[in-house]
Amino acid sequence: MRLNKFLAHAGIASRRTADKLIAAGRVQINGQITRTMGIQVDLEQDVVKVDGKLVQKPTPHKTYLLLNKPPGVITSRKDPEGRPTILDLVPKKYHHLHPVGRLDYQSEGLVLLTNDGDLTQRLSHPSFQHEKEYWVQVDGFVPNVVLYKFRKGVLLEDGTARARVRRLSKIPPEQRFWIQETTGRTWLAFILHEGRNRQIRRMCEALDLHIRRLVRVRMQSLHIGDLKPGQWQPATSRQRRAIQGIKKNR
3-class SS at 211? Predict the structure, then answer.
């Protein structure tokens, strides 16, 4: 963050007045006086003082965006191979946010973008056991014995993986315009509490199921709603209340 913006957000002065304080040599960063306009402040590490008094770091406004990631997009802030990333789908003013809940390149669905580190930790760390729901379209009909195997546990190279799986008998109306029911294929609803790398794809491969689409529709109490692929929206007041509930859940 630019130093004058940092001082303004901390309530010290307006940006214009902050520039005057800097020019007058009244501002220190890590014990050194600075008169450099436009210098950047590291909010995590730098110590800033004005007239010798410590400036308390401003508490950043918590921002939450819900986004429906289409296939062919990287769930990352940048990609060394130059492929489209999740940030290409939102305005530049949100490019300081980070994604919560990774989806692989061809997977689709709900991704949360935020600057709330506490929420990121709670939704990402397996110890909190937060539910994530995925709708998965596979070729053919899936018999009950296969559903039982998912619940009982599928042996993978990194250990046994389990999921609650059921057939999705009907696509809800709010998703029906972009999730089609196709003859000769089955939609399954997976509910996971852990987040191993490509877990659902590997479980299906182990049971000889060929995945056509994999869509995350829910993270705990946050649902994708009627967002179309590539669309995003700021969290509503109801969703922000749900987020606070997630953060309080021990």
Answer: strand
Residue 226 known to be catalytic = no
Q: Which of 104, 118, 158, 208 is catalytic?
A: 104
**Pairwise CA distance, residues 57 & 11, whole Å:** 10
Least confident of 34-43, 143-152, 159-168, 223-232: 34-43
The hierarchical CATH code for the domain 64-245 is 3.30.2350.10
Residue 250: pLDDT above 60? Answer: no
Homologous superfamily assigned to 3-54: RNA-binding S4 domain (3.10.290.10)
Of the candidates 131, 86, 136, 93, the residue with the CA atom closest to the CA atom of residue 112:
86
- 8 A C-beta contact, residue 124 and residue 100: yes
Give domain limits for the chain: 3-54, 64-245
Task: Measure Cα distances from 56 to 43, 45, 61, 78, 124 in Å.
Answer: 10, 12, 15, 31, 29
